[in-house]
Amino acid sequence: MKAPAPDSLPAMAAEAAAGAASEAAAIAGRHADSVDREARFPAEAFAALRDARLLGLMVPRAFGGGGGGLTDAAAVAHALAQTCPSTGLIYAMHQIQVACLVRHGQGSDWHRGFLERLAGEQLLLASATTEAGIGGDVRSSACAVTGTVEGETGGAFRLEKQATVISYGMEADAILVTARRTADSPPSDQVIVPVLRGQTHLEEIGGWDTLGMRGTRSVGYRLVAEAERAQILPLPYADISARTMLPVTHILWSSVWLGIATDAVARAAAFIRAEARKRPGTPPPGARRLAEATAGLQAMRGMVRGALARFEEAADNPDRLTSLGFAVAMNTLKTEAAEMVVRIVGQAMLAGGLAAYRNDSPHSLGRHLRDAHSAPLMINNDRILGNTANLLLAHRDNGSLFG
Questions:
Q1: What pLDDT does 356 receive?
Q2: Closest by alpha carbon to 122, among 46, 194, 50?
């Protein structure tokens, strides 16, 4: 990654980023029930995030951004998810795309200019990686970049993709799309290209009436884009995925799920304390379940922090980022965190009993439970476990405490 200018201000600390997100998180919480009920984009929360300039948090200060890192973005996503998981997840998905641009787009004039626009206008980024006929295998594409080439970077291109999911697609200012490099390229020879709202036509091909994460509006679209070849990120998508997209996705998603678990345990704890005050000296029936949920929460928090530290240590070392051991660690983070959030919220609900089960209770965990169950499906844990199993055929853990 290109370093910010020497005279740039210090990067925002994780605590400061979380503090700046507190107002947006409070607004997100006030509208969370409406967002969930109507399956609508959390517009109020994102207006507040723009006002706080948190959409450009990870853009270097040299380009007008916040100069923050992945830990900062994780702290904000975690804070938002405690009040509205849909808002937290959208913020996480946006920052995944920002990370790809920051880490792999500073070598071209177009992408440097786009980073300045992103920070200055607080643009919201989405992604289109899934595709009809391909499913959840994001490392394959049927669609391709087509058009007349005028030199290596000159000329225009056309792209048409039957995307099974583009979360908050209609609200995004730009979408990062994966496609085959050319019409003759094999499915795995992919590039990634940001296309702007004015360059893109979206035709909805599916609805979004789901159990949870309803505010993400993860609708299917037929996407047609016409843009300049200079917009295509020069590094192959395979490299961008291994070095940035895969680890950042799993870390930020896990931070969101940790936020869900954190609020669920906090609600259960508040209920148990209230019950304990009614009967001093007699532990409430759900106290043991609260202890189990708290232990799980602490383990999950440690796992996310460990993954953040591991990524930061390897961030500027392509060999480490593309190693089998690193891929296994990031895959394991995703599958374990996805299972843990479901388990922790379930334990918190048992601790809260009927008060947690009711939708009209201040201790309600119904939305938490529904949102948590999306985690093992994004991307499906079985697919990731299968990939991990294949990696383990060639990788042997070194047995070190810090391996």
A1: 98
A2: 50
What is the structure's pLDDT at 258?
98
The sign of the torsion formed by the CA atoms of 166, 162, 232, 150 equals negative
One-letter identity of residue 281: G
Q: Any alpha helices (H) in 315-376, and if so which ranges?
A: 318-321, 324-352, 354-357, 366-372
Cα 207 from chain centroid? 21
Structural element, H or E, at residue 158: strand 156-167
337: three-class secondary structure by DSSP = helix
In degrees and rounded to multiples of 5, residue 194 shows phi and psi of: -80, 125
Quickly tell me which residue has 């990654």 as its tokens.
Answer: 1
CB 20 within 8 A of CB 56: no
What's the angle, vertex CA 260, arms to CA 315 and CA 48, rounded to 5? Answer: 75
- Tell me how far apart the alpha carbons of residues 246 and 334 are, in angstroms, rounded to a whole number: 10
- Distance between CA atoms of residues 400 and 395, nearest Å: 14
* pLDDT above 90 (res 150): no
70 or 401: whose pLDDT is higher?
70
Closest CA to 53 of 43, 65, 41: 65
The pLDDT value recorded for residue 398 is 81
Summarize pLDDT for 35-58 with one digit per residue, the tens.
999 999 999 999 999 999 999 999
Strand partners, 163: 221
Please give the order of strands across the beta sheet that includes 174-180: 125-128, 174-180, 190-196
pLDDT tens per residue, range 101-122? 999 999 999 999 999 999 999 9
Please give the Cα distance from 57 to 92 (Å, whole number): 12
Residue whose C-alpha is closest to residue 342's, from 307, 297, 289: 297
**Pairing verdict, β 125-128 and 174-180:** parallel
Radius of gyration of the chain from its Cα atoms, rounded to whole angstroms = 21
Tell me the C-alpha distance between 313 and 159, whole Å: 37
Residue 14: pLDDT over 80: no
For residues 241 and 182, give the distance between their C-alpha atoms in angstroms, rounded to a whole number: 19
What average pLDDT does the segment 309-314 reach? Answer: 96
CA-closest candidate to residue 64, choices 130, 113, 128, 124: 113
